User: Which sequence fits this backbone?
């Protein structure tokens, strides 16, 4: 089970890409949509979009739902998941303490930079 710190790193890594930011913005503005439509709107290939959507979904920033259309085609719909990331020195210090790869000597008290 990922820790709070690990989840924060995963979210920040997912957001550190201009394509993924564009995907989130498009989903927020348009709402729930399927991959082909979103790829056309963003002007990127479906395989590239799938790569970015997978990263966003793994980070918990988007959700997906596979549905069958009236003509029997499988459509994978995506939507923005509710999230709120607040970054402050205190929240980062707290997240560091829960990292699965945390250095036990890294405590808020031991921070030389105050």
Assistant:
């Amino acid at each position: 089970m990922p820790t709070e710190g690990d989840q924060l790193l995963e979210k920040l890594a997912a957001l550190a890409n201009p394509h993924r930011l564009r995907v989130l913005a498009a989903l927020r503005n348009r709402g729930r949509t399927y991959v082909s439509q979103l790829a056309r709107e963003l002007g990127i290939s479906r395989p590239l979009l799938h790569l970015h959507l997978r990263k966003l979904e793994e980070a918990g920033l988007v959700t997906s739902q596979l549905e069958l259309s009236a003509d029997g085609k499988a459509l994978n719909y995506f939507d923005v998941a509710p999230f709120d990331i607040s970054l402050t020195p205190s929240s980062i210090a707290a997240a560091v303490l829960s990292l699965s790869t945390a250095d036990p000597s890294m405590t808020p008290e031991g921070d030389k930079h105050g």
Summary: The chain has five helices and three strands. Residues 5 and 96 are 6 Å apart (CA to CA).
